[in-house]
């Protein structure tokens, strides 16, 4: 699921560092039984690229459970 994006104009051969924050809610789903937002246990893969079909880099994170 897309959780953030930023359009960054670059000249050919240039690079730029960008960043954005993922909040707890960005990794959560609504549990209808407990009536609260829940972060599933386990790992999440974060990917960047031109599109979902052209990913250039990925990393894995494990959120800290509250």
UniProtKB/TrEMBL annotation:
SMART domains for the chain: Fn3_like
Coiled coil: none
Keyword flag Transmembrane helix: no
MF (Gene Ontology): beta-glucosidase activity
Signal peptide span: none
Alphabetically ordered keywords of this record: Glycosidase, Hydrolase, Secreted, Signal
Highest taxon of the lineage: Eukaryota
EC number, as in UniProt: 3.2.1.21
Principal place of residence: secreted
UniProt keyword Nucleus present: no
Residue intervals of the Fibronectin type III-like domain: 1-52
GO biological process, one term: glucan catabolic process
Catalytic activity: Hydrolysis of terminal, non-reducing beta-D-glucosyl residues with release of beta-D-glucose
GO cellular component, one term: extracellular region
Compartments, record wording: Secreted
Ranges that cross the membrane: none
Family annotation (InterPro entries): Cellulose_deg_GH3, Fn3-like, Ig-like_fold
Family statement drawn from the similarity comment of this UniProt entry: Belongs to the glycosyl hydrolase 3 family.
Function: Beta-glucosidases are one of a number of cellulolytic enzymes involved in the degradation of cellulosic biomass. Catalyzes the last step releasing glucose from the inhibitory cellobiose.
Protein name as catalogued: beta-glucosidase
Organism: Colletotrichum noveboracense
Taxonomic lineage of the native organism: Eukaryota, Fungi, Dikarya, Ascomycota, Pezizomycotina
């Amino acid at each position: 699921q897309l959780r953030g994006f930023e359009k960054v104009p670059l000249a050919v051969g240039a690079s730029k560092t960008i960043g954005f924050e993922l909040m707890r809610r960005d990794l959560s789903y609504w549990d209808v039984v407990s009536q609260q937002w829940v972060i599933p246990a386990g790992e999440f893969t974060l990917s960047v690229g031109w599109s979902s079909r052209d990913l250039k880099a990925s990393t894995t994170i494990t959120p800290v459970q509250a």
